[in-house]
Amino acid sequence: QVQLQESGPGLVQPSQTLSLTCTVSDGSTTPSYYRWIWIRQAPGKGLEWVGVLRYDGNTFYNPSLKSRTSISSDTSKNQFSLHLESVTPEDTAVYYCARADFSATFDQTWNWGQGTQVTVSS
Hints:
The termini are far apart. The strands form two sheets. Strands 2, 4, 5, 6, 9, 10 and 11 form a seven-stranded mixed beta sheet that branches. Strands 1-3-8-7 form a four-stranded antiparallel beta sheet, with no helix packed on it. A hairpin with a 4-residue loop joins strand 5 and strand 6 (59-61). The chain has strands spanning 4-7, 11-12, 18-24, 34-41, 47-54, 59-61, 69-74, 79-84, 93-102, 108-112, 116-120. By secondary structure, the chain is an all-beta fold.
């Protein structure tokens, strides 16, 4: 029922900024308690957490990426975005967005986007 879709350029040049947007479907409504999350998977490697935007506006980033990572939102459009600066070929990966919804008892409901391939290359 809840659907998320990643969008943005599939090719980014080294040293530039990788920018992606995640759009939540019209049929969904942002709950009171949630986290908006970006995760990526490089070729031949496991999933890597990039960062999260919490419902109260707090952001948290992977320590290995935090110096060049930013997550922002536009709640009126049910969108949130990832900006990763100074990219290198090692940032080539499939990038996923997700939303984790929390109940009053702190149970979690996760919804994932399908992922989008981003290649860093000249």
